[in-house]
Amino acid sequence: MIESKKLPKLSELRKLFRYDPKTGYLFYWKRPKGSNVDPSYPAGYVNKKGYRRIQINREKYSAHRLVMKFNGIIIPEGLQVDHINGNRDDNRIENIRIVTGSENKKNSKKYNNNSSGYTGVAYHKKAQKWVAYIKSEGKLIHLGSFENKNDAAQVRKNAELEFGFSKRHGCC
Q1: Is the pLDDT of residue 1 over 70?
Q2: What ranges make up the beta strands (E) of 57-125?
Q3: 54-89 pLDDT, tens per residue?
Q4: CATH of domain 109-172
Q5: What is the pTM of this model?
Q6: Reduced to 3 states, what is the DSSP secondary structure of residue 16?
Q7: CATH number at 10-99
């Protein structure tokens, strides 16, 4: 998820939130006078894609980007924040990192439209073979055609290691 809007100032974040680096939520509202905000409840909500979003002054922000700001880390233009363990609501500083879009893809889960059960493996009807492929740095690389789906999957797994994909890529 990429946000182009400017994040709130660090002083404003510190005024509004209590920061707990041990949990995956990190931000808890401080109770302003006259407010009905429960300070024991994590700030924000989890959207359809699994990211925690927090509304500040009628603007919604991704919690992982606010965590970076809270820790004094600047996210350079064009880069993204990746959740290392794949849990988009686990915003502990040790679970998030700044990456390129290509690096972020190397840590992604299996897509919902996967029909073979293996990332990077598809059945080629015309050839009646299983095809293994991998995309890295914007290039689609054909890894071979196979009679057996498991052989194609193994070649794909080996290529993931070679190209620096995470161990959890394509799972879950």
Answers
A1: no
A2: 59-62, 80-83, 96-99, 121-124
A3: 999 899 999 999 999 999 999 999 999 999 999 999
A4: 3.30.730.10
A5: 0.78
A6: helix
A7: 3.90.75.20
